[in-house]
Amino acid sequence: MSTADRPRPHALLVAGTTSDAGKSVVTTGLCRALRRRGLRVAPYKAQNMSNNSMVTAEGAEIGRAQWVQAVAAGAEPEAAMNPVLLKPGSDRRSHVVVMGRPHGYLEAGEFAGGRKALARAAFAAFDDLATRYDVVVCEGAGSPAEINLRQHDYVNMGLAQHGRIPTLLVGDIDRGGVFAALYGTLALLDASDQALVAGHVVNKFRGDVGLLEPGLRTVERLTGRPVLGVLPWQSGLWLDSEDTLALESRPHHDPVGGRPRLRVAVVMLPRISNVTDVDALCLEPDVEVAFVRDPRALADTDVVVLPGTRATLDDLRWLREHGLDRAVCAHAARGGVVLGICGGFQMLGRSVHDPDGVEGAPGASADGLGLLDVCTRFDPAKVLRLPRGEALGAEATGYEIHHGRVTVGDAVPFLGGARAGSVFGTMWHGSLEGDALRRAWLAEAAALVGRQDFTSGTASFGAARERRIDDLADAVEEHLDLEAVVGLLEHGAPRDLPVVRGGLA
């Protein structure tokens, strides 16, 4: 059956003029808003390029953003919601995950051959979701106007063509030039792709929306497509992000009652992964979290976090090149707390070995920082699981995504890892999202560094995530023409949309 002959699924594509325009935010808000209407909703992103990922109940790895969108939709997260996940290991090479399982590597220039197989997997997953859910809300990647990639695209307009999916184009007004971005993106698409772009959304607006009206009406007149809403800037709002672009949006707190804060420095590794591990710390009212690259920033902090990484040996080399290895060891020597998570934990050990070239060149090896009596050896088989246990007298949960096999010597076990004094290492991502474990660990860390006046917060991280999602849905319902969106889901893009004359139209 040809694409034209198949029944058109009830789906919507949220595309953006740029990366970080707000596609994930709009998609998440729509998932919750449509769920409130009693619809069975599934999120979907054909291909995600991110080192922030999550493990589903089926033992599959998907992008963290799609996991959160599934939570917003009230759906069980599954591999089909993010069938292709690219995890960059360098500027030109990515580890490929297909339907939640490792699928080799993809070089930067490998489009024609490698991408065809990925497109088939992505389209099959979309078709499957469309048969099981009332609505599929799709998130694009980057911009649909990346015309150098259009021939093999299956994430933006290639996906839209596959499912005849009406498309919303989101522009970020906070960057400036939003009117040119909306018009120019559309003008760079060919006529068949333009026919599926049914409306615009302006995101991150601050101020009086009345001031935008002349520009909005002009964009509507020039493109023949309505602006379906202007979403306001929402201060302090962030979601589990796909990449490191949104790190600066993590909230910061003023001191509570004048008490001293517990200061936490998170080392911004070049190939940082699962940076969402520290999100729960950012919500603690008496914890100050900073993301740092300068070793001098570790001199007056209480806790140093070495987060996960997609390239442990490369980032360990980077630590040494920038003197951060010495700074971390000096911090530990004076009694400061160190927490290593997954790859960061592996760096704290005695040695790291990669005999099969899982992360890079076969046979690569390096000494670790020597703060924990552990050794790591990479294995081609990836560990994907949702562990449960106990630490510091509190119930603990998390998720594991790693190739490294850690052998623990003379150290106290800690969350799939090890502890020696004030140095902690764990293979469990997401453990600090557990309220009891987070409070117990913060109390332990504060005691170790002599912060006797430290007080943990009482907020639930899970409840805070739900509030963020509900805030997004409230904004979508208030500021977007949701009836028009539902109309697009039911009837598709209007047939009489004009062609905008531009470079390729």
Counting DSSP E segments of at least 2 residues, the number of strands comes to 27
**CATH fold assignment of the largest domain:** Rossmann fold
CATH architecture of the largest domain: 3-Layer(aba) Sandwich
The CATH homologous superfamily name of the largest domain equals: P-loop containing nucleotide triphosphate hydrolases
Helix/strand/pairing category: alpha/beta
The CATH C-level name of the largest domain is Alpha Beta
Described by its quaternary structure, the protein is single chain
Calculate the terminal CA-CA distance, rounded to whole Å.
29 Å
Largest sheet: 7 strands, mixed
Order of strands, widest sheet: 15-13-16-18-27-26-25
In total, how many domains does the architecture comprise?
2
Keywords: Cobalamin biosynthesis, Glutamine amidotransferase
Pfam family, one: CbiA
Function: Catalyzes amidations at positions B, D, E, and G on adenosylcobyrinic A,C-diamide. NH(2) groups are provided by glutamine, and one molecule of ATP is hydrogenolyzed for each amidation.
InterPro entries: Class_I_gatase-like, CobQ/CobB/MinD/ParA_Nub-bd_dom, CobQ_GATase1, CobQ_N, CobQ_synth, GATase_3, P-loop_NTPase
What's the helix and strand layout?
Blueprint: E1 11-16, H1 23-36, E2 41-44, E3 47-49, E4 53-55, E5 61-63, H2 64-73, E6 84-88, E7 93-98, E8 101-107, H3 112-132, E9 135-139, H4 157-163, E10 167-172, H5 178-187, H6 191-194, E11 197-205, H7 213-223, E12 227-232, E13 262-267, E14 272-273, H8 279-282, E15 287-292, E16 303-306, E17 308-309, H9 312-321, H10 324-333, E18 337-341, H11 343-347, E19 351-354, E20 364-367, E21 374-385, E22 388-391, E23 394-397, E24 400-408, E25 412-414, E26 417-420, E27 423-426, H12 435-448, H13 461-479, H14 482-491
Parallel strand pairs: 1-9, 1-10, 2-9, 3-6, 10-11, 11-12, 13-15, 13-16, 16-18, 18-27, 19-21
Antiparallel strand pairs: 4-5, 6-7, 7-8, 14-17, 19-20, 21-24, 22-23, 25-26, 26-27
Helix pairs in contact: 1-2, 1-13, 5-7
